[in-house]
Amino acid sequence: MLTQTGLISLAEVTDLNQLKLELSEVPAIDVGDYIEDLPEERRAIAFRLLNKGKATEVFEYLEPDVREALIGSLNDGQVHQLIEEMSPDDRAELFDELPAGVVRRLIQGLSLAERHATAMILGYPEGTAGRVMTTEYVRLQEGLTVLQALEKIRRLDRDKETIYYAYVTDNNRKLRSVVSLRQLLFSLPDAQIQDIASDRLIRVRTDTPQEEAAQVMMRYDLIAVPVVDSEDRLVGIVTIDDMVDVLEEEATEDIQKIAGVTGGDESSLSPPLQKLRNRLPWLLGIMGLYIGASSSISPFQSTIAKVPVLAVVMPLFSNTGGTVGIQALTVTIRSLGVGEVTPEDTWEILKRELQAGLGTAFSLGGTMVLLSLIWTKPEERWVALVAGVVMSINSLVAVTLGTLLPIGLKRLNLDPALVSGPLVTTMLDTIGFILFLTMITVSLNILGAPV
Amino acid sequence: MLTQTGLISLAEVTDLNQLKLELSEVPAIDVGDYIEDLPEERRAIAFRLLNKGKATEVFEYLEPDVREALIGSLNDGQVHQLIEEMSPDDRAELFDELPAGVVRRLIQGLSLAERHATAMILGYPEGTAGRVMTTEYVRLQEGLTVLQALEKIRRLDRDKETIYYAYVTDNNRKLRSVVSLRQLLFSLPDAQIQDIASDRLIRVRTDTPQEEAAQVMMRYDLIAVPVVDSEDRLVGIVTIDDMVDVLEEEATEDIQKIAGVTGGDESSLSPPLQKLRNRLPWLLGIMGLYIGASSSISPFQSTIAKVPVLAVVMPLFSNTGGTVGIQALTVTIRSLGVGEVTPEDTWEILKRELQAGLGTAFSLGGTMVLLSLIWTKPEERWVALVAGVVMSINSLVAVTLGTLLPIGLKRLNLDPALVSGPLVTTMLDTIGFILFLTMITVSLNILGAPV
Question: In this protein, which residues make up the domain named CBS (chains A, B) (predicted)?
Fold first, then answer.
């Protein structure tokens, strides 16, 4: 729906040459959407109208199942050419999706250089910079002049994913410095590149997690960052367009995990079965855990029979306390996620959360007393007071759990978003109910409060 | 903590020239962090060590209060030079933060061109492309050759924020086409730029919301997008580094709004008072709304006194039903937020959510029956059946509300994330409690079910 270009439907096409021209002028991603919207049997027709370079680009934007079907309907020569032209990182992603047998056949058709590049990327674990990097970058040898560097780029680097940074390496491919195309363009032709290049350069390693690479690029406003191996040899670059996608995926995952939706980024239009698979396990898990909360109420049934207004008041502090916990949880997870804080900041964060939490506890406790007075009979007014006290305590417990649980996971090198909202509300309900019902029962049976 | 460069503390500095050299080599954002960490009285000392260009860059990264203090401690000449050198969009942002009196004085010190550029940007509403664009872009007149274009860029565009795209305009500044520096570099020097430039170019308007501009850039993998006025005249460009920040802010806002935290992006380290201001209104609002839910239970107190196991079962389906609602809500808000779906897709989305919802309703209803059997006495077993039925119905209501409420807001051109999680759980509790307690009371009093 963000498409800025309109295309006619293939059914209305009378002149294939006209469509061919249209397709060559429209951005690749729009052509991709167009092809996906076509009936399956027409997709290959439209795809064959694309010129070589465009076909590769469009192919990279297609959905996995559409790609697989296309590979089936094109002839071997066409397929091999297509795969050969893809950038190594996109090719690695494609190979991840396809059946092993198909991949084996495709790899055999690749040139040695491309086969090597793909194998290298596939060798790094998913979610690392090594896996999302491209091996198509501009490398300059130390010792060139600006003019020589520009000539080299003009001659040899036409196909590189970005030419806006060039990386300078020594004879062992060790990364020494970086020079931007901008610097090359604004320098005198006979200047030495090592004189204008910067050797304080930002780099990530092949095993750097992709979110961290994205955050580094964001911090330093880079459109590409070099990736080096354990011996500081340059092996690839990560470009900003891939990193923007990583940031969006990570944000979606965080949001959905907090809400108790697992399995990566689910869309509104994901298939119903996938939705069910992403959500049901959490729901059943939460119900299972909630046996604890409900079982903690069960022994107090005689108390509730005596003071049924408890059943009116309990959902109120359960809902409110849960919200307090989720608020703190969400802010903590997000701050950890975007790298604003680390587990070292634990005490500073907890201090601030508890200071705010005191204000919350005081306000909500007071409100709880007032609201409870609506439903309590005159002789039961003391119940309102107990409810207020429990609401206050519950608020402080809520911010503490919402802050410490995700930080604790992060300390253990686990994903902080594993503590989802429903988990926190379940814990809070259990604690709150036991506290409340115990206080009420003690007031009734030991202190002899009236009902 | 993502800083890749270490700096010594100013207290340890014996040689200011050494520090000056260090500061000139470290990225501006790291220098900014370094200055912010210094005691207040030393910040101006360190800042004065920076050369002109670096000072401006560093200044743009400082926190608002640090900037204001610095403006106070530098002399007028230094301040005017600093402000003059800033890019118009960052200057506009600075002026937004400073007291009106200070801004007036600063504006008077600006050159006419910069004053004009800033006034134009400040004229666009916050949150639009016009407000985040920069007016420093490369513009080429139609009719130039590649060589002339490169010469023009080399001579006149040294200060432009990005030189990697050049925009071609006609005599009336109307945007005609775009050519990348890459294309210029790989073309023959005497080619006409209009022959290599693309006239199918992606553009946004000054009043395009910033999230939409960010999504367009993401879709088309652009590192800059031109901004045009209502008459299609080029007035600025938006660059990818600003858009990445916009995407991150929007994601944070969405996450936090769903959790009931208002007021933009709160960090774990935000001041406690701000935290309280962001969260308490929602909590009190939710408690106020919950009067409805609790009041709906109140009339059934005699039923609860007769069947106190109801108080054990009710929190279970309230917690679970709330989670079902928040799951659907979160997926919907995120899909709308990243532009994957629009309100036109309403029925398709609802269909899929309800199909998955049927599976959820069936599973959770069954589990509810089984779990309720734990706490019900033999003669109360029928309560478990009613609880299961209500759980199923509640699940279907939950996915419906979680899907339709945010889409409805979007249709009204409001922010879908205004329907926060706690709002949905409050609505679901009210509906669920009324349904459950009515069914139980009818079973007891009219059907004569045993207790």
Answer: 133-196, 197-253
